[in-house]
């Protein structure tokens, strides 16, 4: 291969692609083209756009074409560990997408299209290991998000619209240059939610339930009002000075 030229990568034909279709444990059709050294998005796979899942991870892709919108039934899209620098606006048309992995690419804040906020069914979004210094607040429109990964980026703040997503259970923001030592802990540890919370008036409770609630409330109030006992200063008056026994018994050990 001549110097200065990029490797062409493996050419994927329609026949090869068809042989890469797998059936997942839940009966979905996954087109698995991962780890194949692909440098250019294979146009032939547009003829297989009815698959449910598409895996193009661990290749050398730099660009995802606008035609990605042809995968109308796609629920799972894995593009991690490529060299992607920009996402097409048409990615917002993948309305059935539930899982989107963009980890370990070359994405920046400018290369994240506004149309990402149209992925209303998205539950898992991984943007870790990129060059993102600012997250669009419009991602707060993705109300179904359960897990978000933004680790190993250039972030100094996480927008409140993302931190306060109603179903968010996991926010991985590790190894970002946040301004304070407790910033990351605030983003991650603050997401501690109850599975279910029901609020009712006291008058709507039966007597045993009301009594139990009152007892639990009294216990909590008691704990809050408890003054911790002062710690006793340890008394070492009966102990010998350090190494005194060793000094006295040295002759026995010689």
UniProtKB/TrEMBL annotation:
InterPro entries: Leu-rich_rpt, Leu-rich_rpt_typical-subtyp, LRR_dom_sf, LRR_domain-containing, LRR_R13L4/SHOC2-like. Residues 29-129 form the Disease resistance R13L4/SHOC-2-like LRR domain. Signal peptide: none annotated. Keywords: Leucine-rich repeat, Repeat. Pfam families: LRR_14. SMART domains: LRR_TYP (SM00369). This is Leucine-rich repeat-containing protein 18. The gene is LRRC18.
């Amino acid at each position: 291969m001549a110097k200065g030229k990029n490797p062409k990568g493996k050419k994927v034909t329609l026949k090869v692609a068809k042989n890469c279709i797998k059936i997942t444990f839940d009966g979905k059709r996954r087109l698995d083209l991962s780890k194949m050294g692909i440098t250019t998005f294979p146009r032939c796979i547009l003829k297989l756009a009815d698959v449910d899942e598409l895996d193009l991870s661990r290749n050398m892709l730099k660009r995802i074409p606008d035609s990605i919108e042809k995968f109308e039934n796609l629920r799972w899209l894995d593009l991690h560990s490529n060299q992607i620098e920009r996402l097409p606006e048409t990615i917002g048309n993948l309305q059935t997408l539930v899982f989107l992995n963009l980890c370990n690419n070359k994405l920046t804040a400018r290369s994240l299209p506004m149309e990402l906020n149209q992925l209303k069914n998205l539950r898992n979004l991984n943007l870790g290991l990129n060059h993102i210094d600012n997250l669009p607040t419009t991602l707060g429109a993705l109300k179904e998000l359960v897990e978000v990964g933004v680790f190993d980026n250039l972030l100094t703040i996480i927008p409140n619209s993302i931190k306060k997503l109603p179903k968010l259970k996991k926010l991985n923001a590790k190894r970002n240059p946040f301004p304070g030592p407790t910033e990351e802990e605030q983003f991650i540890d603050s997401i501690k939610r109850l599975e279910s919370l029901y609020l009712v008036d006291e008058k709507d409770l039966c007597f045993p339930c009301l009594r139990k609630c009152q007892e639990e409330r009294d216990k909590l109030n008691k704990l809050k009002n408890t003054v911790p006992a002062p710690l006793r200063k340890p008394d070492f008056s009966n102990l010998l000075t350090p190494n005194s026994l060793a000094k006295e018994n040295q002759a026995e050990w010689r």
